[in-house]
Amino acid sequence: MAEQNASTPTGAQKEAEPKMLAMFLPGNSTVELRQVPVPTLTRDTDVLVRIRASTICGSDIRCIYKEHLGQGPERYQNVIAGHEPCGEVVRCGKGTRRFQPGDRVVIYHISGCGVCVDCRKGFMISCRSEKFRRAYGWQRDGGMAEFCVAEEKDLLPLPEGLTFLDGALVACGFGTVFEALTKIQVSGRDSLLVTGMGPVGLAAAVVGAKLGAKRIICVDRDEDRCVLGRGLIVRALSRSKKGLEGQIETASSNGGGQEGESEGSQPPPELHVICSCSGSVATGNGVEMDGDGISSLNGKFNFSSKGPEGIFRMPGTDAALDLIRCLCAGGKDFSVKSQGLNRNAGAEKSIDCSGNAEARALCVRGTKDFGCVALVGEGGKLSVDASPDVIHGQKMIYGSWVTSVWLMEELLCQLEEWGVHPEDLVTHAFPLQKSAEAYEVMSKGGKCGKVGMVVQ
Q: Which of 18, 111, 153, 258 counts the most CB atoms within 10 A of its CB?
């Protein structure tokens, strides 16, 4: 579909058309910035969007930036990169019905055929047409540019209460976790286990808390990511509405007390972060280890806990699993020796955002009997013992890939109502001219959250 790509203008138009800055990913951990023609509308339903923000996804790093590994829907076809764009409408084709110039929009990052069964359900991510399914930034020009042409059916209105960076994060990561957490029906009755504390895992913790989860347990093996991620989660939730901000301030000033909460308000969830690093000694507030595992857990963490002292450091995933079960039991004494056969200790709902086989196994094993697991982290394998880890525990495992158009629109409205700003997970924002630096920061991980581009 060369007519959609700003990178392939016709000969006579090359000199006459206005130019824009755009970014490409040739592989080998490199970025190319090029001056290309501003794209034109080729269909009556096309819309020209001025990009205001575009963020970097881990799949860009995994499948395109380092080397071109993607196949099928992940195959990169040397187009303008970026599948998390947000901006404002500049021009509309004569056949458009909903949007007009000046509207603030998020671009759903897959353009489907629109008529297959999955597209008609709103899941253009699962479009069955090999001919017409095109993902922005993968098979058609994406958002790492000053302008992008999108089909009107791929646009979602950005609420006034959200920023362009907020919208960019919703276009993939936040939309992905909202779909998954909705599938497994996270509620106030649940502890939520999150494995992997990259940007998607952090989004899962924030959305899970706003869906009402009473306890959030996040696990990662990178200590820098654990410390940074915990702070970003707290920052995002402390700015949100529904009384949480006031409760956090009260807890901080009163040593974790519950005074000052309004009657009937949602209590703040417990937040626990576990670093499942290798080592001989586990440290952390209130945790003691003996030869049998965890012997006691004294006290609980809430949002008043700050900095590295709020991180449990456990010697590997087995010890992390013991701690997860202990935390989900309400912090009561939990002896591995006496409770080893009690499979009903664990999180009611779990989500893996890591794509790592060891973390995925922990996610499944850390889920209690009759619990639900959602897998959203791409790549890698799932390796568990089917009978003890899944079948005998009557657990349900869901695969979840991005989200539907209608649920993403619901999320945008919900975020505005919650007062949650996804941009609070952004640690680095660059102008488009510094794309190479942005991708380098994101590819190193660890000491960064979400990385974005802001287009002036």
A: 111
- Specify whether the CB–CB gap between 431 and 454 falls below 8 A: yes
- Contact criterion met (CB below 8 Å) for 284 and 313: yes
Range list of β-strands (E), 69-154: 85-92, 104-107, 110-111, 134-135, 147-151
Contact 252, 304 (CB under 8 A): yes
128 Cα distance to chain centroid = 25
Q: Considering only CA atoms, which of 334, 323, 353, 364 is closest in space to residue 215?
A: 323
How far, in Å, CA of 414 to CA of 197, rounded? 23
**pLDDT digit string (tens) for 123-133?**
999 999 999 99
Angle at 206 between CA 252 and CA 289, to 5 degrees: 65
Q: Residue 213 has what DSSP assignment?
A: -
Q: Token pair 């306890």 is at which residue? A: 215
Q: What is the DSSP string of 270-307?
A: EEEEEE----S--B-TTEEEETTEEEEE-S---TT--G
Of all helices (H) and strands (E), which one includes residue 55?
strand 46-55
Answer yes or no: are the C-beta atoms of 32 and 24 closer than 8 Å.
yes
Residue whose structure tokens are 């019905």: 97
Domains, the chain: 2-158+421-454 (3.90.180.10), 176-399 (3.40.50.720)
Paired strand residues for 145 = 22
Number of Cβ within 10 Å of residue 266's Cβ equals 16
Three-state secondary structure call for residue 311: strand
pTM, two decimal places: 0.86
Burial bucket for residue 108 (CB in 10 Å: 0-12, 13-18, 19+): buried
* Interhelix angle 317-328/357-365, nearest 10 degrees: 30
pLDDT digits (tens, 9 = 90+) for 295-342: 333 333 333 333 445 788 888 899 899 999 989 988 655 544 444 445
Residues 6+ apart with CB under 8 A from 207: 174, 177, 178, 181, 420
Neighbours of 299 (CB within 10 A): 11
